Q: What sequence folds into this?
């Protein structure tokens, strides 16, 4: 007799519980008169959106990009530059963000995908650094010092310059994006992406243009990362070339690896683990990287599955324990029938 698989999955329940807590957090924070936590967690949610966007390219498509900070920064300046001229329409900001990130993602992705391996990584990094120095040179918009955003995005009369509003918008985007990633994973487009990640030649051999699928995923990832940058610019009411730094791209990769590359909830868990533990360790020591660095190395050594893989391992052990008693009962019944 085989044990029936349990419908309860820890690797799904934990992220969903986290999302439920995020829904309640603003109410609790205001009840405790601690609005700081709304702004702090809103920042983590925004980075979770960017990490999930990167996971589409890195986890599903196998495209290791050190240049996604380019789109993150373009999203921020899609708010800052129109706001500099007094334009506060969120629809204009969003249109500029989608158009800019989409076109730049299409142009750079078409070039990047002509290479593979380390060359792909270095070209994405080069494009991001080019974008960084372009915005540093724009002295009219603050140059290296950045620019303050006085006209934040407004949608339906709601101002994203308010922490509670941008928190709600960001959480809604993250929830929808996570749901979409779950659907995409089993959709034909997602299956082709994952097939191209493993062996692009075989995908081409069955008549599917792997490069076009990968380019589409890269452009979608760029746009979603730009939307995250747009939300962060509203949250901070500030945009700076530092958002295009290669270190931002590196942090996003760490978030994806920490949570689990190519998993639905990995980027979400990895972002909260990285940024949350960073703040906790800072409470005890200024040298938090010396403590957090070995933790990242340990997770990387445990495997690519990251935190999601750890939770799935717990599921597997629990399933084995549930099946053992039934297996022993079945063996005892078979022995009794043999003796009779």
A:
């Amino acid at each position: 007799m085989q044990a029936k698989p349990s419908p309860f999955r820890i690797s799904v329940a934990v992220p969903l519980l986290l999302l439920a807590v995020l829904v309640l957090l603003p109410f609790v924070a205001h009840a405790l008169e601690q609005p700081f936590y709304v702004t702090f967690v809103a920042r983590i949610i925004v980075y979770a959106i960017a990490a999930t966007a990167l996971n589409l390219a890195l986890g599903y498509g196998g495209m290791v990009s050190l240049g996604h900070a380019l789109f993150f920064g373009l999203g921020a300046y899609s708010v800052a530059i129109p706001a500099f001229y007094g334009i506060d329409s969120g629809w204009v900001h969003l249109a500029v963000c989608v158009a800019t990130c989409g076109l730049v993602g299409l142009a750079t992705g078409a070039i990047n995908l002509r290479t593979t391996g380390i060359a792909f990584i270095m070209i994405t990094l080069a494009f991001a650094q080019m974008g960084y120095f372009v915005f540093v040179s724009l002295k009219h918009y603050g140059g290296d010092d950045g620019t303050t955003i006085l006209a934040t995005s407004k949608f339906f009369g709601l101002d994203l310059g308010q922490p509670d509003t941008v928190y709600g918008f960001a959480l809604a985007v993250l929830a929808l994006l996570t749901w979409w990633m779950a659907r995409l994973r089993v959709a034909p487009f997602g299956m082709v992406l994952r097939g191209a990640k493993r062996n692009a030649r075989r995908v081409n051999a069955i008549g599917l243009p792997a490069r076009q699928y990968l380019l589409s995923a890269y452009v979608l990832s760029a746009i979603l990362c730009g939307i995250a940058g747009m939300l962060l610019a509203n949250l901070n009411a500030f945009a700076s070339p530092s958002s295009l730094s290669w270190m931002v791209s590196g942090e996003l990769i760490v978030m994806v690896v920490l949570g689990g590359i190519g998993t639905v909830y990995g980027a979400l868990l990895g972002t909260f683990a990285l940024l949350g533990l960073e703040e906790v360790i800072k409470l005890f020591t200024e040298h938090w990287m010396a403590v957090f660095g070995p933790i990242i190395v340990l997770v990387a050594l445990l495997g690519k599955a990251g935190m999601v893989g750890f939770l799935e391992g717990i599921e597997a052990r629990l399933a084995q324990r549930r099946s053992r008693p039934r297996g022993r009962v079945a063996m005892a019944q078979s022995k009794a029938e043999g003796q009779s």
Summary: The beta strands are 147-148, 154-155, 158-159, 238-239. The domain at 10-339 is CATH 1.10.3470 (ABC transporter involved in vitamin B12 uptake, BtuC). Confidence is low (pLDDT under 50) at residues 1-6. The chain has one domain: 10-339.
